[in-house]
């Protein structure tokens, strides 16, 4: 996409239209609540480009904008106008901390150099400090400041139930919209898509894993359900050129050990005699072993590839779906068939720790000289995050069909998958996988306890709520506040600790699920993703619209060292494990 100008708002776009005499069309209500009409008239049905009607309008120099109108999100894309040059600053970074509430620690961390982490971002100072560029001082995520109560009032429960049960992902495969590398047959239904070990039944090589959702944007109670899959290159799946599930399983386990700094993991029974590999490194070959010891290199046809400290091998792929909140007849929350987004990452180039250091340095240098973030666009392949990863994504169009995200919509992904201090090789979920054999299989929140993070004592989600002062970054999830906090605003520690699983802590009531689904559907109808994708029900009150010097930083006692990896207590038996 050719970028004409970089501006924080609509001024230049309006001035261009006015100077060209392009304001004579009939006026319309074009606030960001009414993008629906604009996108329907100016974009083709699949949302990929201008329709014939828009082409005619362009030739006639007629646009539906008047000075003072709020320009719809898709209009910025249509006119190659950058709406938010600082889209890498997520909405959550504008949260009011009031000097004591800290949701920032989950992303922003600085680690001791003795750990030799490839991630050398070191952004712990951003905990409660608003260190933004001049452009970033204005919060461009204006969907946060909309009360959607009236907008969702006209959507009844029966309508939203039917909508979220529709399978728009399979429809995208049938219509040949989804690229081959992002395809898994029957992905809308986990039981049909994966076997008990998490391997895709279609032979695509994708493997699903069970992981603890990152706090708190990815908690179902805050708007979405989701899942994650990993795929390694063919050489990691084969032995002497032939697919071998045991080899693939071992290599997946070695990746997990490299990323998490583990020496051993449990695996499904492996016949060392058949593979001629001493999997558990006990000095002998055995017919059936259930533990793998870390080795210096991968196995099978990838035996020449060394394990790299906290890094994935080149060619590693991730697929992540963000879904609506499904509600069963009995009120059980599950991953709905309908997908909001399908997100994809591929490590197209391996970069060593030293190479990554130069990339982090370049990023810091640009920020020091007040240069705005740069995103390298790759056309239909997505974007390059500058650290060896290609990122791509699909999102719903106005009719609910999945479409490729536009460049500016994809730039949003760099906010989490480029330079964030707490990530592992620019990723989140795999470092949070249930360890070993028990973690291979589709995500199941009922099988995960609220275990603590490494070097922490209390459960991670309990600790998060204590540090944040709420059940979400914005501290406005009323249901979480009522359920887990007392009248003084303190967490009901014992009640949280009595929860059987994280499912009981972070899933919403059916009523809230319906409301959140409806709220997001209004964003879909508006196609206003550039203005924010958070399905807030009412206007955010603990979020800053602009940053000024009066905002207090977090007090030192409210800043925390944190590692997103979890202390699973060496896979100690639990009530959940026993029922698996």
TrEMBL record:
Using the record, list the residue span of the signal peptide; answer none if the entry has no such feature: 1-20
Q: Classify the source by domain of life.
A: Bacteria
Give the start-end ranges of region Disordered.
41-64
Q: Which UniProt keywords apply?
A: Signal
Specify residue ranges for compositional bias: Polar residues. Answer: 41-57
Q: What is the organism field in this record?
A: Alteromonas mediterranea (strain DSM 17117 / CIP 110805 / LMG 28347 / Deep ecotype)
Protein name from the UniProt record: Lipoprotein
Q: Does the keyword Signal apply?
A: yes
